[in-house]
Design brief:
The structure is a homodimer.
Chain A lengths: L12 H24 L3 H13 L2 E2 H8 L3 H13 L3 E5 L7 E5 L1 H22 L4 H15 L2
Antiparallel strand pairs in A: 1-3, 2-3
Chain A binds a DNA duplex (30 and 30 nucleotides) through helix 4.
DNA sequence: TATAATTGGTAGCTTTTGTAACTTATAAGC
DNA sequence: GCTTATAAGTTACAAAAGCTACCAATTATA
């Protein structure tokens, strides 16, 4: 147990993943938080609508793997910021189509570029081969 | 923007890391939660004390990179479960040395083994080379 | 065509986290 | 020695997440 080769916290994959996720997320958070006062949940919803176009809250739940209450609150917050509009569906009045306003699109475009360059910066710390393996392993673990 | 090769959420490293971390953590959580009613913060504190021996709350903060209020609450919860004891230091009466009780050690030993086999199971999904690269990249990103 | 079951979305309550202020103890400046 | 600063740890209050129950619209079923 006090053996030098013994299993350590730094060898425990869930711990490693959490530390890496936390650090990178906190760093990127600066952008959407400082500029737009957004939360992580809001940034995710914004990304989905900006990147993939109009969709319902349920579709966002599935794609982003977020609980529906989380999405509901993020949508309300984005609407409050005038970044998002809702329009009731004609075929099923329970659901509403969500879309971005001009301001929402502008925020998305801005953050989308930041995300790209942030990702590039992260990848640049490793060789292309390492980065490719890292991405593949993470996708596999995340079941994406 | 609707280009097939365009930057996608699945290409965004912080998102990938979060999804992978969340999935693996939720899975392992089953063990400490179901058997001992522990929270993640408590499991981390238990791990530190079990693996590295007695130390103060401040040392746990540094090693585990947890905020001192989080540690304080986890310590209180572990004490409540009779897994942990405190003893005031003679040289500095502000700090107290934290250690595990017999029950705490038993819980640690159990979970330590589970953690090892869990990690092994995760690693087995990849080749040894891939696993090594994955670990190195994560350590680098997490600045460990 | 009633009635039960399901679905999209919201609201309320509880648990957990984050932040700042506070308490007590030590260290530093003069 | 006496003030001031800093550190360890706790507490209190606010923000956020999780969970359950709920409402209203739709679909399935008897």
């Amino acid at each position: 147990m006090s053996d030098k080769n013994a299993f350590d916290l730094r060898d425990f994959m869930p711990y490693l993943l959490n530390q890496a996720a936390e650090i990178s997320s906190l760093e990127f958070q600066q952008y959407y938080r400082a500029r737009y006062g957004m939360l992580r949940t809001e940034w995710r919803v914004l990304f989905h609508l900006g990147r993939y176009g109009e969709m319902t809250a349920r579709e966002i739940c599935e794609r982003a793997r977020m609980h529906k209450t989380k999405v509901s609150r993020a949508v309300a917050a984005l609407q409050e910021k005038r970044f998002l509009t809702r329009s009731q569906s004609d075929t099923d009045r329970r659901q509403e189509q969500l879309g971005l306003t001009a301001a929402g699109k502008a925020a998305f475009d801005d953050l989308y570029l930041e995300a790209q360059s942030f990702d590039k910066k992260m990848a640049s710390r490793f060789t292309p081969e390492e980065t490719a393996i890292l991405r593949r392993c993470l996708m596999e673990i995340a079941r994406l």
